[in-house]
Fold these 2 entries.
Entry 1:
Amino acid sequence: MPSRRFDQARPFLTLGIILAFWLMLPAGLKSFVRASFFELTAPITLAASKVRDLQEFWALRSHSKNELIEAGRDQARINASYEVAVQQTAELKSEIVRLEELLRLPARDQYRLEHARVARRDFSAWWQRIVIRKGRDFGIPAGAPVVFSGGVVGRVVEVRASTAIVELITSPGVRLAGVIEGDSRPISFQGGNNPTFAPPTGIVELMPLDIIASPASPKRLVTSGYGGVFPPGLTLGTVIRAELGSDGLHKSGEVRLDERLGSLNEVTVLVPLNVETALPAR
Amino acid sequence: MPQPLPGDVPGLTVERRDGRDPRILFFYLILAVLLLLLAGGLAHQQLRRTDDHANAERVQTQRRIVHPGPRGNILDRHQRVLVDNRPRFSVRLLLDAIRPEIRDEERIIRRNFRAQDEADKPDLPTLPEIRRLARMSVVQRYLDQVNRILGRDERVDARELDRHFTRELLLPYTLLDDLAPVDYARLLERLPVNSPAQVYTSSVRHYPSGSAASHVLGYVGSTDEVGIEDFPGEDLRTFKMRGSVGRDGVEKRHDDLLQGEAGGAIFRVDPSGNRINPPLAQVRPRQGGNLTLSIDLDLQLAAERRLAETEMAGAAVALDVNTGEVLVLASKPDYDLNAFSPKLNAASAADITARGAWFKRAVQGAYKPGSVFKVLTTIAGFRAGVLQPDSMVQCPGFFRVGNRSFACPGGHAHGEIDLVMAITKSCNVFFYQQGMAIGPEALAREARRFHLDQPTGIDLPDETRRMIIPDPEWKRRVTGEAWQGGDTAQFAIGQGFVDVTPLQMACFAASVARNEVRTQPFLLHDPNRPRQRTEPIGLTPDQRAALLTGMEQVTRRPFGTARILDDPRVLPPLPGLRIAAKTGTAQKQTERGMINFAWLIAFAPVEDPRIAIAVAIEGDTPGEETGGGRYASPVAHAILQAWQESLSPARAGLKVPFRSSE
């Protein structure tokens, strides 16, 4: 009888032994095991993402020829406008270089653009993250800024061989130094506590008292460039509310963020050409 | 061995027992008791201790932040800012959050010491030493992180860190203070959100005009006593930002008015300690009340500039004759108030001490008034009936009292001289004679009538009480010696034992200008302040006319001792402004030799006095002739020039006009 009761407790005993063994393992080994686990699961994440792409591809295949022709025509128009924008950008870049040389200004931080598809979204009350399908193999460093057509997406917080985790600016763990468009005084921006299906918001603090913002008269918040991580002028969101903060010296407020942040498929990582100086030591 | 029951599947190991088995019943009883205990405990915890648990949960998950309210601004009479606030950014370390790291560091330090070779092994440090090393190491680690971000090389001040751990453990430790906007922006972006090192803001005083009126405005010091009334959550973990309290000047005198009302917020925090917005409760801090001083910034700056050009210590005071409001209260040397914001460092404090700049000469400097006192002697003579407007005196250049001889300035013999010319040329012999005739008691009585023997009661702390109006009784009491005739002669010309402050002499000048005996100076501006009315001096029109004529002639060429006010080659003219003045050059024997003190009192316009001035400058070289006409007159001129400009039509619309006499 006692031996039978021991048999019944065996699973709990085994679990206890495993837990005790895990707790006694050296920290380095645990870290290695954890990293290995993520690296091993990375192909599954990638495969699932690619399967979704394939599904999307076959879904698109089901469209009629007329729809495809129409889409192709729209695409051609967009391409044409982008070509013009690319030309203008090239001209502006050369003008900037000329002015920098003329005024002997230091060159702006240089970035290499690395486009990546979103493999998985991981949204919770505590963090809002996406996993992208590029990682260390593509030279993506931790801390690198990530952007999309609507502005700032977030910051790379963890890099693996073939994937990277990006913490979105909707997450309370992200804080940036922004400025109101046309102003030069830095403002603290931090992601808010965003429920999963609610419109994303952030909070601003240390806003000068003379800045007035309301839903009727919103103010565009852009990156300041002072922090050294994000280049200046990228859209963070729109300040829709500003009221006297708890210190009495500044205003605090609410920022409305781009709703597309919750459904991104493609993002661009800005990889600094000089990673050592451009990114914070982590 | 229990028998299988009907329906049991053969081979199953489930045991079935008869409920009536006494052993089982016993266990049922125990089980029932345990269940009852459990239910009772549950009920106790859920019903009776609900509030306790709710409170414990509240204390664990909520944090309270208290911010001091910004202090009120200090403005000049035309609402221009003399003192306001500016945000100050600092990076601070939450000591509670690094406690585990410090404990780990202590273990590492202890292990490293033990691991050293026996031969080289030093004595194991004591526990307090290990703790000090550990916290120093951990704090420096965070400072290094900040250094990397900002490209600096700052080190932790070990003594300051020890002091903080001993006295202010609950408050965050300041790693770096007074960060530039770019620095705090960089830290905002690069410091992890949940790092124990975070950027904080506080309010510090800002002085747009630097050292202007520094002795009037005073400065503030920091305090931990930031109270918030009627705000819940006193039992919560509270982060209090340091406040400020007035330490000197009007900041101290009117601290109650300037002090802001503290605000606070209660936040729910996540398991990592990050706060969750919006706050559960919030009271916004309220700025303290603004204080409008009677000081006129233009006049103050003009006086200070001119005083500084003399490169000597001195003071200048200007009053609105009718209301007694102080327009200028300047004292040199002084200090840049921005050096106190956020905190005066040791080097700056030592520099201020070395220059003697703590001393507020305008209200603390008790000087011999010299010849400016002759105005009071004249009034005393008139009232005693020993002096008439047409009195004449023969001045041989010296005056003998007993076996002592007292000379006129430079030994000049003025010959036969009347009152007006005696004032104009500041003839000592004339006033020696008048003083001897008046007597020391009557002179002292007249001086006390003008309240020269007591502080003015201005709204400033630290006004001196060391002013002296001597008489024979005073001398006997203080020195134990009898009053001599020479003492009276000296007293009559503002020498000897008499001591007054520049502020007192400005009040005296305003009183003479109004033909009354007292002027109460005010530092707070009140646009509806009534004209002061006190006891009239009691001079006949002829007597007053003679006195004013003499004082006006002081500012005129060719004989006036302040004639440079009328000399366009020396000072720009003051068109249409009739000035009554009296200069003085007092002597004081010091260890270095005889030092001169330059004096001037004045009021203008003579026909309708609206501004009264007193200037005193300390000579710095023994034996050097530091005359009131040469050194003090330009300061008064600068004040009068700025005053005239302030009345020009182009600026009159921007400012509150002076109250003219009724």
Entry 2:
Amino acid sequence: MEKKDVQRLFMQHYAKMLRVARTILGDEQESKDVVSDVFANLLHGHTVLVDGSEERYLLTSVRNQCLKRLRHEEVKQRMSCKMVTAELSTDMCDEDERMADIDEFVATHFSQQERRIFCLRFSDGCSYAEIAASEGISTVAVWKHLSHVLTLIRNHFKK
Amino acid sequence: MQTKVNRQLYFDMQEHPERYTDEQVKAMMDELDREPDTEQAWQEWVESEKLKVKSEKCRPDSIASRFTLHTSHSHRRWLQIAAIMIGVVLISGIAIAAIYMNRQWTMNDEQRMVVDGQQAENNDSSASPILFDNVPLDSVLGVVAAHYQKVVCFRDEAPRSMKLIMTWQPDAPLDDFLDRLNAFDGLSLRLENDTVFVTNEEDKP
């Protein structure tokens, strides 16, 4: 992809992408790293984004990269505790498969409202205030719903 | 209230919301939704990409790969020439060994090759056992290997001049003959693909 195209996408979507990354990782620097990596892949790779699908692609990429990162950290931690011996290689192989499972996991494990909130946050990049307004509930209630969803997803994908 | 995004605190707030006040939760949400300076982030990203490209160029394996790209054609050409030369030398060696052996069989009294009389009478030379009488290993293997269409490679020079007295049955498998040769002290012969490798095995029991 041309640098000017990457710049346009960066200016349009960086804030939302960073928001998604922060929500999953809870770490400012790591979140910036993930978002930077997604744009670097666009610049150096051969991905062609169709108009209208750009935002969804970028936010989904950030979401998946963040979950992969958390999972790798978990595996590394377990390796350092000598509880796992040769798990990393197989982890890498079925990583993409796992990422494809997220939507199915969300669809089967959460209430309709939680699914909507998840979608508003991670597919549309909405803020807590925007989600609260959309759902007609308080921001703290949104926080609790998202916390429940994220805790279960993290635990599921750390396995 | 200003709360820095900190993973440990953030995860704890998610898993144990009852431990935190609504104000603390709202502060965390504000921090998570804080608008970044996108222009500055773009500049930083561009700079980091430039640094990545530079460091990539400076990596030893990157330099090595460029060198390999530039030199691969000439390197391959030299390998082809070397392979041709080795082939020519091997074929010449086999031919010289065959001529040398032929002359030895007919002219040299000390290094005689005696065809078993009984077999000679039957005039069945293909199955006749051949006696190598005080013949250098070099020459013995030249004949035997040519018969089995193998190539001989001496990895050590010492065994080359080793003189042997033994019989060879041309219709027996080559492995049998090599096994018998391997029984000699200090001698090791191994067949790999179509080559008989000969090494000097000093510490052979």
